[in-house]
């Protein structure tokens, strides 16, 4: 074995330039001996021992960055000015910031940011960047969000069809930005105070017995409240709609065509013409008979 002029066996703990030998690691076949070295900035780096001892590798890279910064300061001193941090990194150990207790500082992140071990109020310790604690981006180990989620989880039914129907009912009655507000909240239709809580709504209405059911108001001009609402199909709802704004006869399904009154009715999604009549009273009776015949 050829003798080396570099003392690899006794280099642990020695410092060359800005690197201190910490420990030797596994050697790659055909390559020089490798060591973990700690830079003066606190960063650990794997280096070839011969490169450190010869001076080819003098730091973890921070020295080169500093020289580049100094060189650029001469070209553009304003752009490359080093600003002092507004956060007290050097005095934070042993203090509590945003519910997190600083335990100790560890090596910097790969982006050069100072990192710390911090302790959450729940007792859990974890590493994080100091800046994230100081600016409030991190306030716990994650337990705060988990506990908040448990507190907000009241019934676990937010994905059910009944919940979606309830939420839509609330929106069209109280939200002016909802596309249906003009026909509900805009006309004074309200949701009773009890039904502003979904749990009370489902206790009063129960679950739908038919997947095609949706909420129906018995009195189309009344509010959403237990005494005025049932589960029913959209077809039944369409029969219970208020008169159209362009209806001039005052009777649903009856329109004036010239000197006659035309009577129509919707049957299984299709409009059926009953006939035309000379007087409004005749048309009214014909419409009523058609409703009894086709709608039971």
Provide structural commentary.
With 296 residues, this protein is an alpha+beta fold. It has eight helices and 13 strands. The mean pLDDT is 81. A four-stranded antiparallel beta sheet has the order 1-2-3-4. The protein has a four-stranded antiparallel beta sheet with strand order 5-6-7-8. A three-stranded antiparallel beta sheet has the order 11-12-13, covered by helices on one side. It has four domains: 83 residues, no CATH class; 59 residues, no CATH class; 79 residues, no CATH class; 42 residues, no CATH class.
Give a quick precis of the structure:
The chain has 296 residues and is an alpha+beta fold.
Largest sheet: 4 strands, antiparallel
SS strand fraction: 15-25%
Structural class: alpha+beta
Shape: rod-shaped
Q: What value does the average pLDDT take?
A: 81
Q: Order the strands across the largest sheet as they lie in space.
A: 1-2-3-4
Q: Give a count of the beta strands, DSSP E runs of length 2 or more.
A: 13
Helical fraction: 25-40%
Contiguous runs where pLDDT drops below 50 for at least 5 residues: none
The whole-angstrom Rg is 39 Å
Q: How many domains, as an integer? A: 4
Termini distance?
Answer: 106 Å
Order of helices and strands: EEEEHHEEEEHHHHEEHEEEH
Helices, by number, come to 8
């Amino acid at each position: 074995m050829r003798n080396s002029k570099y003392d690899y066996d006794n280099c642990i703990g020695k410092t060359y330039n800005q690197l201190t030998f910490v420990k030797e690691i596994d050697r790659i076949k055909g390559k020089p001996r490798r060591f973990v070295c700690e830079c003066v900035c606190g960063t650990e780096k794997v280096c070839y021992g011969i490169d450190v001892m010869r001076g080819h590798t003098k730091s973890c890279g921070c020295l080169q960055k500093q020289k580049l910064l100094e060189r650029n300061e001469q070209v553009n001193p304003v752009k490359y000015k080093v600003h002092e941090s507004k956060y007290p990194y050097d005095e934070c150990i042993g203090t509590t910031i945003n519910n997190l207790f600083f335990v100790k500082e560890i090596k910097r992140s790969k982006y050069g940011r100072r990192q710390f071990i911090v302790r959450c109020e729940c007792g859990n310790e974890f590493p994080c960047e100091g800046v994230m604690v100081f600016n409030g981006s991190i306030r716990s180990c994650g337990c705060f969000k988990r506990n908040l989620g448990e507190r907000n989880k009241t019934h676990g039914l937010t994905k059910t069809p009944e919940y979606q129907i309830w939420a839509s009912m609330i929106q069209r009655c109280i939200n002016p930005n909802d596309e249906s507000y003009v026909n509900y909240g805009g006309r004074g239709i309200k949701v009773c105070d009890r039904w502003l809580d979904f749990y009370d709504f489902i206790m009063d209405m129960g679950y739908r017995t038919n997947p095609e059911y949706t909420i129906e108001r018995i009195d189309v001009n009344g509010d959403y409240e237990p005494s005025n609402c049932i589960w029913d199909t959209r077809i039944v709802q369409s029969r219970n709609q208020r008169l159209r704004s362009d209806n001039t006869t005052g009777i649903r399904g009856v329109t004036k065509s010239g000197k006659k009154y035309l009577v129509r009715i919707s049957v299984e999604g299709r409009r059926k013409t009953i006939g035309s009549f000379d007087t409004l009273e005749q048309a009214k009776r014909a419409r009523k008979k058609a409703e009894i015949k086709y709608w039971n």
